[in-house]
């Protein structure tokens, strides 16, 4: 039997979702191959690139090897190649690995940043629409702030310590939120005052997050950024970018060496000569069933569109947004109609396939504004909801193993307090898993002082000053307050009890447990998370002073 190929170009959310859906539905049909083509061998979680760019997570956090995603999908064949064009008459896709024949074709090649022809953006600025670009930003910011800290010329220093983001859409707002948190880390690393690192958000329109219908949520995001030292400039139309900074329409400038452009999205430019009807942003227009359309508005029978390549307006929900839900809704409709064409189901319009649950815009790891299932909210619970949304999307295309690592990377492996709990549950900030042991020790010492530990009462004390110390030790350990010195006191109390009342294996257990909780367990759901850094700041300042990136202690003596 002759095999037939369903070719999908692009391994973004739209392409991967379409491939997963088709693979499942065609599992028992050996005569169909699903061929997924992408120039990368991995899938990238595009909406989390700002976390990579700002050093919140490692690059691997937003990558998943395509082999891992599709290893169990035996009817999916992977091809790492670039697509050069389409021959609609011969029904082939031309790639750098040769021509691939297709029975059905899905175009989901994704998008790229749209600089609207603004001079100098590509030469002197950065864009955030690929893993490579996020890594370039990550390296540049670290290097430039480091250079700025060592620069003695005031004007050059200010220029190098200024980070500007153009565009206040989802990407721009989320990236700026990450920079708010990264600024603290950079300031500590290079002995700077946080106020020296200037964050500037440039928006040409009179408001931010203009895609939000609920303006109260946009106002909350605006206030959060403003309260955290972001210079938000509305009506700031950028007309050029130079080596020295940003040029505005009124002729004024902003000196900076770090400009990130997030002001627009368009389809990949190489699809412009593939012979379709193109809409806004160079996207391919589609009909209600996600067929690509020709210039005369007739559909291409065997070619479908999904993801950021798509231009389509639904009568009820409006234009399909460049979001994960938009990509998956289009892919869901395209897959259903391909299956219907092949005789394995009923056709389905976009309106029948679309599923929009809402959105969540994270302004860093600590604050989010969200509108989900008709509810608008912000802050901590919105941040948790944002992670819930990500996990929901992950569950549709990724494995339980990947979901586990997402949770680890976003909650338990985070550095510098960059998670919704501000680091209190991070394994890198404390020994989280010893927290239950700490709580147990706290309760044990309180009960020992009260004489409520049964046959073990004779091993400890229930009266006098020693009992008072047991109460203090137990309460402090339970609350996670001054855990290190109280852990040491717990060991001392146990050794004295051992020498006074005789040896029991319980003493060894208490000693070793006390030693274990001294390694930072008070910062895991404990008061030490707040108290220890405060004490370090106060007493460290009194004894060592405050480190700076530059000194001039002769200034007032000359």
From TrEMBL:
Residues 5-327 form the FAD/NAD(P)-binding domain. GO terms for molecular function: NADH dehydrogenase (quinone) (non-electrogenic) activity. It catalyses: a quinone + NADH + H(+) = a quinol + NAD(+). The keyword DNA repair does not apply. The chain crosses the membrane at residues 437-456, 468-496, 508-532. Its EC number is 1.6.5.9. Belongs to the NADH dehydrogenase family. This is NADH:ubiquinone reductase (non-electrogenic). It comes from Leuconostoc falkenbergense.
